[in-house]
Amino acid sequence: MKSRKLLMIPGPIEFEPDVLQAMAVPTASHVAPNFIEVFGNSLDMMREVWNAPNGQPFVVAGSGTLAMDMAAANLIEKGDAALVVSSGYFGERFKDILETYGADTTILTAPIGEVVSLTEIEAAFKTKKYKVVTFTHVDTSTGVMVAPEPLCKLAKKYNVLTILDGVCSVAGQEILQDAWGVDVVLTGSQKAIGVPPGLALLVASQKAIEVWKNRKTPVQNYYASWNNWLPIMTAYEERRPSYFGTPPVNLILALEKSLQLICSEGMVARVHRHERLASAFRAAIRSLNLDILPNTEEIAASTLTAVYYPKGIDGAVLRANMTQDDVIVAGGLLSEIKGDYFRVGHMGSVSANDLLCVLGALERSLSALNYSFESGVSLKVFQDRLG
Ligand code: PMP
């Protein structure tokens, strides 16, 4: 029997066959006219997905962490004050990156399952002149979503640059970069963008570019420096050949295809699909009397759900049973509660069928572990919610 596993972790995700096929071709030269066109098209479509007609896109070989590194390296000078708004594991990572470039950082950490309040953020802005504030739109360790618009409005009032870590949100959650005035929105390819791991993607506002241009000290990173990459992005946009570091040609072919699929679905419809599936999935999980990590529906992400194991159930066995049933979900990531919960990714090309598979495998696994519930209830609640 062919074993068809369903990968339902919060990245990498299941990729569209058309995207995988787009990259399964002989590698072209990075200066071939066809490839220049593909790269240029991808940059154009990023503006559409980010809702950033005035933004400057960058695509560089690397993971999401490189996109975080690029934002910090280009915008931070030694001694700059940076505020990190953290709702899980990835806030800590941003703090480490910012400090690598000599930032004087302050971190506001939300209690597990909650977000940092705007009052707390405003209090921080009042006590110190910050140059940047970073926040994780969806923290992949908790499934907590931070509303970007009010935070960015507040940052604007205090003239602070905003950096949105959208690794687990871009192309899955609503993002209106220009309208909200976000200075950097960054992601990696392997999540809702729907391309195998290996691309760091970032869109910078014109204000961010100005701040970088007016630096008093050189960028303290060679590979991530916009000095090296901005001329390359400009050349591809103008459909001219250029070279700094060899781009991952086949991944860019996949990126163009995935962005085409995203744009033809349309961001409004895509965000709605994610919200609808995610809220039905959370209702299904609750029908099994399982607890979800984010404390309220309002701050629950549409791209993944983090679920506590029921008391007395061995989480590793629960997940191993599901893997035996060909459904792969992720364990916990936040160190304080790592062994207490699991995570299900539902982003990109995810469908209702995929989530029905997850619920079926979860019910079978819970049953095998003698957890008491009404068999089939989560599948029924999920279907009823979808209507
Ligand atoms: N930020 C968030 C919110 C993430 O989910 C991840 C990856 N899980 C990262 C940053 C880092 O991305 P990568 O693993 O691609 O370096």
Indicate the radius of gyration in whole angstroms.
21 Å
- Class of the largest domain, according to the CATH hierarchy? Alpha Beta
For the record, the CATH architecture of the largest domain stands as: 3-Layer(aba) Sandwich
Task: State the distance separating the first and last CA atoms.
Answer: 34 Å
Kindly report the name of the CATH homologous superfamily of the largest domain. Answer: Type I PLP-dependent aspartate aminotransferase-like (Major domain)
Tell me how many strands there are: 14
Structural class by secondary-structure content: alpha/beta
Q: In CATH terms, what is the fold-level topology of the largest domain?
A: Aspartate Aminotransferase, domain 2
**Mean of residue pLDDT values:** 97
Roughly what fraction of the amino acids lie in strands? 15-25%
Structural descriptors:
387 residues; single chain; three-stranded antiparallel β-sheet; Aspartate Aminotransferase, domain 1; 14 strands; 15% strand; 2 domains; Aspartate Aminotransferase, domain 2; 14 helices; alpha/beta; binds 4'-deoxy-4'-aminopyridoxal-5'-phosphate
Written overview of the protein:
- The chain is of the alpha/beta class.
- It has two domains: 6-11 and 266-386, Aspartate Aminotransferase, domain 1, CATH 3.90.1150; 17-265, Type I PLP-dependent aspartate aminotransferase-like (Major domain) (Aspartate Aminotransferase, domain 2), CATH 3.40.640.
- It has 14 helices and 14 strands.
- The protein has helices spanning 17-23, 33-50, 64-75, 89-100, 118-127, 148-157, 177-180, 206-213, 226-237, 249-265, 267-287, 315-324, 352-368, 377-386, and strands at 6-7, 56-61, 81-86, 104-109, 132-136, 138-139, 144-145, 161-165, 184-188, 199-204, 304-308, 327-328, 330-331, 341-345.
- The strands form four sheets. Strands 2-10-9-8-5-3-4 form a seven-stranded mixed beta sheet, with helices on both faces.
- α7 (177-180) links the parallel β8 (161-165) and β9.
- α2 (33-50) crosses α10 and α12 (315-324) crosses α13.
- The protein starts with 5 loop residues before the first strand and ends with a helix.
- The relative contact order is 0.17.
- The structure holds 4'-deoxy-4'-aminopyridoxal-5'-phosphate.
- The site of 4'-deoxy-4'-aminopyridoxal-5'-phosphate (PMP) has 12 residues, from α3.
